[in-house]
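Prompt: I keep going back and forth on a fold encoding question. Comparing notes only helps if you start from a blank page. Show me how you would write down a chain together with its backbone fold. Please set it down just below, with no commentary around it:
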Amino acid sequence: MTRTLKPHDITEPRLVIRTMDEAGPGGANHVYGIWKADQPFDGQPMATISFQNGGIAECGVNGVTHEALLTIIVDRLGCFQAGNYPHPSNEQARLFCLLAMNALHQRTHERLKRGVEGKVVA
């Protein structure tokens, strides 16, 4: 069953984000589509994000990771800060993304110590 995510825009929604697959064994979806709000859902999304589905050791690399998307956001926000229109909120958002990446890296290090990184573990 697909879901439409709650609006992320503060003003009138310009984009609609929907899941495009069933949730996997871990409870999360792996494919998300982004449509213009005035575009029908029966058409192709303007962007699709496919996340890693299954452990890399078992399934190989087959999608992006949270860390990859956070890296892109950190880069963009840093570029905005270095550009003509820096803003404290951009820097705060960049730092929060770095904190999120750090938390995910800590989880990876913990999984490496247990010898389960890249594997599906019940």
